[in-house]
Design a protein that fits this description.
It holds the Pfam family Xan_ur_permease. Belongs to the nucleobase:cation symporter-2 (NCS2) (TC 2.A.40) family. It comes from Gossypium barbadense. The structure is a single chain. With about 450 residues, the protein is mainly alpha-helical. The chain has one domain. Helices cover about 65% and strands about 0% of the residues. The protein has a two-stranded antiparallel ribbon with strand order 1-2. The longest helix is centred in the N-terminal third of the chain and has 28 residues. The protein is globular and about 65 Å long.
Length: about 450
């Protein structure tokens, strides 16, 4: 589904070179559905699993309508007119900074693998990027991730095979070993995913309402990721029409996730946006080809199992670089604003601080049993609010956009960076937009941009 959704987005959505992947925003609503008393009463574990998957499917299908409606009705595009470089800077920055817990804290679970990976990536991509072992081919500049993953993966295989983790605690073995749970040997050679494989979806108003919070959060995070991807791909900021089109197709992707029973919804992959900056490869053709490989490897189970055997601290090391790059792209929007203005300093500082502080406060209270700081008798209400306020980008958007559009708005147009920003609001505001965002196969004749 990642492959299919990425292809749809790259062909008919924003057409930016961005991967559409799973989202952490869906964890809380899914945990709420799993712990629903009506499902917990089912004694047979396998039957409970099947019924839970059907409930998650139904919630995703209903909740996807939020993005489909907001996207194709152009409502999200109209709302984006309240954005400015000042308002978007903390939002995009928090898309990266808000994922700090998935960086070095997870790298530290197996520091003998994660730390060499981090140092090797920085060394190859930055210090050795001009070294060309093969004539006129910038190998270290274009392929640092592939080279580093291969080297450290082999290193971790050697550690596992030599018995380095034989007597280590379970947590260490889970993070460091490459042979967890016999992934490769138990994976089927061929498996074709198909819709409704768990049976017909079941629908519940409470489940659907809880899932809508994750859909709203993924929409905000995707908006920030689209802005970052456009800058790293040297494209103009996506106009309101293109942004709405992308959100609409992302809604269709979540609908497909529900039909296929993926167990989670979709959003733009932040780590792959960071990879655009690290590898300096911003071609949508490359992304479309990658999506095709994802589809093929998902059908060939052994290949997917091989990649799943890579220890997670290797990815955590990459996240430190990728998420940091996305955060810096967000901060780069401040170059179009007047940061000598106290109004702008207050909005930026408050948005960044609260965007990190409030989710961290909510995160301290969240667990599978109590399910968050908000714990009323209405589980769907708890899941909704906890999901919203556990998202740094969403909290940052609420604070930044509200303050930016209520504090001395008319007096501060130039300080907010609006003279630079306004020309990218409409599809025809910049002649480069047609090159970047025009639909393929001459489809613009039937869906003219506004």
């Amino acid at each position: 589904m990642i492959g299919i959704n990425t292809l749809l987005q790259a062909l008919f959505g924003t057409r930016l070179p961005a991967i559409v992947g799973g989202s952490f925003a869906y964890i809380i609503p899914i945990a709420y559905i799993i712990n629903d008393s009506s499902l917990q009463r089912i004694s047979n574990r396998h039957e409970r699993f099947i019924q839970t998957m059907r409930a998650i499917q139904g919630a995703l299908i209903v909740a996807s309508s939020i993005q489909i409606i907001l996207g194709y009705s152009q409502v999200w595009g109209l709302f984006s007119r309240f954005f400015s470089p000042l308002g978007m800077a903390p939002v995009v920055a928090l898309v990266g900074l808000g994922l700090f817990q998935r960086g070095f804290p997870l790298l530290g679970n197996c520091v003998e693998i994660g730390l060499p990976m981090l140092l090797l990536v920085i060394g190859l991509s930055q210090y050795l990027k001009h070294v060309r072992p093969i004539r006129d081919v910038p190998i270290f500049e274009r392929f640092p991730v592939l080279i580093c993953v291969a080297i450290i993966w082999i290193y971790s295989l050697i550690l596992t095979a030599s018995g380095a983790y034989r007597d280590k605690p379970n947590a260490t073995q889970l993070s460091c070993r490459t042979d967890r749970a016999n992934l490769i040997s138990t994976a089927p050679w061929f498996m074709f995913p198909y819709p409704l494989q768990w049976g017909h979806p079941t629908f519940s108003a409470g489940h659907s309402f809880a899932m809508m919070s994750a859909v709203l959060v993924s929409m905000v995070e995707s908006t920030g990721a689209y802005k970052a991807a456009s800058r790293l791909a040297i494209a103009t900021p996506p106009p309101a029409y293109v942004l709405s089109r992308g959100i609409g197709w992302q809604g269709i992707g979540i609908l497909l996730d529900g039909l296929f029973g993926t167990g989670t919804g979709s959003t733009v992959s932040v780590e792959n946006v960071g990879l655009l900056g690290l590898s300096r490869v911003g071609s949508r053709r490359v992304v479309q080809l990658s999506a095709a490989f994802m589809i093929i490897f998902s059908i060939l189970g052994k290949f997917g199992a091989v990649f799943a055997s890579i220890p997670f601290p290797i990815f955590a090391a990459l996240y430190c670089v990728f998420f940091g790059l996305v955060a810096s792209v967000g901060l780069s929007f401040l170059q179009f604003t007047n940061m000598n203005c106290m109004r702008n300093l207050i909005i930026t500082g408050l948005s960044l601080f609260l965007g990190i502080s409030i989710p961290q406060f909510f995160n301290e209270y969240w667990n599978l049993k109590h399910r968050g700081l908000v714990h009323t008798n209405a589980g769907w209400f708890n899941a909704f609010l906890n999901t919203i306020f556990l998202s740094p980008a969403t909290v940052g958007l609420i604070v930044a956009v509200f303050l930016d559009n209520t504090l001395e708005v008319e007096k501060s147009k130039k300080d907010r960076g609006m003279p630079w920003w306004v020309k990218f609001r409409t599809f025809r505001g910049d002649n480069r937009n047609e090159e970047f965002y025009t639909l393929p196969f001459n489809l613009n004749r039937f869906f003219p941009p506004t």
